[in-house]
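Notes to self after the Tuesday call (sharing in case useful).
The group wants a holo model before anyone commits to mutagenesis around the pocket. I volunteered. Ligand is (3R)-3-hydroxy-L-norvaline. Logging inputs and output together so the record is complete.
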Amino acid sequence: MIKILIIGASGQLGSVLTQKLQEKYGVENIIASDLRMNPSFNGCFEVLDATDFDALKEIVIKFGITQIYHLAAILSANGEKAPLSTWDINMKSLFNVLEVSRLTNMEKVFFPSSIAVYGNDAPKIQTPQDYVLAPSTVYGISKVAGENWAKYYYEKYGLDIRSIRYPGVIGHQSLPGGGTTDYAIDIFHKAVKNEVFECFLESTSVLPMIYMDDTIRATIELMEAPKENITVRTSYNLSGMSFSPEELTKSIQKIYPEFKIVYKPDFRQKIAESWPSSIDDSAARADWNWKPQFDIDAMTSIMIEELKLKYTAELNIN
Ligand code: VAH
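Result:
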């Protein structure tokens, strides 16, 4: 019997992954949770602050949870505004997930890491799976620590915890929250509303990215891979594509020739410059057959189509 708890189910990734897991395993087997109740949620939703050990343990026991997807964290840009609080939230919630999972013999745990674990010293092109991790953000530092704690709990207690170093995730389902790659989501909203987009990164800032559908599929494929195939117990590099704001603009202008962008780099430019431009994800391809399906133009086309529907619906309602 499978019972999945999703922590951070109202977030950019959590909201889409929850729906996919409901479709796959049945609404009744998915327990969504976040800091605040989601009144419009279809299914079982629990208010949960994952930094509260007792609250997490109570939900796991109450519902007989067999798998946890821990998707709650403070991201890179917001993290720099409150470093110590970011460290506290990101690490305390992970420790609670690790300890509750150990104590309740959890079958599987998913923990998202990020390409933000790499720092300025790493090769920018095809950044290798195994390289010195010297991140420049608190978010990245918390993810490096998290990867090593995940590996420790696997080796010491046999906890089957699996992880992916996500690149910038792009989806139409929700507005982003506090990341450095968020420009690549905001830009589509502006394009569909025929507004000029003000980009907080320089035009040539190439970053590794992935479309939401590929992200969700990769996550589920990793979690469903046979245990013996998993050779990386820190976190798997993963990428769908790499592009700069300039390249994304050109892709959008194939649909909206009049679309305009202006560049006003802010503090997030320095964060972006410390990250890879492209990622070597050969370990994921070898261990669990990872292969991206969306390139930049396929992503642009679907993002614009979906956001046109969203804004047309909103216009009709108002
Ligand atoms: C961020 N979207 O910008 C996240 C992600 C690689 C970027 O970790 O912080």
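Two things stood out.
The chain has two domains: 4-169+210-237, 171-207+241-277+295-317.
The two ends are 45 Å apart (CA to CA).
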